[in-house]
Amino acid sequence: MAPKVSDEYKSKKKIELLQAAKRVFLTKGYTRATMQDIMDEAGVSRGALYAYFDNLEHLYLELLQFEDQQDAQFFAPVAGETSWQQITKWVNKQQGEIEKIEETLSQANSEFFLSLKDQQKRQSYPYITTRYEKMVDVLTAFFVHGTATGEFTPQLSPEAIARYLISVIDGLMLDTAHLGAEKTKVSVQMEALLFSLRAMLGPTQ
């Protein structure tokens, strides 16, 4: 019984550290943040933080993975909601986050990925090269399920629609992080995205 409690404690503690790190990255971005900043924010010792994370890059990867898991759970079946309602709600959620870009990790993400642009680091962190495909798989499965239940009559392959959706969201998020929501006209672009998704997915309800 003791090992189980220990594992639960470690899991809870790791999440607490990731949440503290997120607060630091939201304030400082990635390039200006330090492990010391995160220790101070979490109120832990150096040993306590390094027991979970090797360095800042490792910590940020773990944070990305945690955030991605939360996003993927959004596409689990929801009683009383159609698949079109679910995808619309997700798109609206993305819009809200992009419009308040300063409250998201978008800027930190941009800095982080640019810091790993050389091939050696990309090979050292395979999660960077697989996270995109994981989200493609989640969205593709969601669209396939909606098609199987008769909720969608897609005009393109579910995978093509998934890749298109991710590209539009990621591109708009990156542009807005650098230019601001007024310049990128987020609400207009998201309206256009929903229009195109409706045409591609052909929701029956």
Automatic annotation (TrEMBL):
Residues 11-71 form the HTH tetR-type domain. Coiled coil: none annotated. Gene3D superfamilies: Homeodomain-like, Tetracycline Repressor, domain 2. Pfam families: TetR_C_17, TetR_N. InterPro entries: Homeodomain-like_sf, HTH_TetR, Tet_transcr_reg_TetR-rel_C_sf, YfiR_C. The keyword Cytoplasm does not apply. GO terms for molecular function: DNA binding. Keywords: DNA-binding, Transcription, Transcription regulation. Residues 34-53 bind DNA. PANTHER family: HTH-TYPE TRANSCRIPTIONAL REPRESSOR NEMR, TRANSCRIPTIONAL REGULATORY PROTEIN. This is TetR/AcrR family transcriptional regulator. The lineage of its organism: Bacteria, Bacillati, Bacillota, Bacilli, Bacillales.
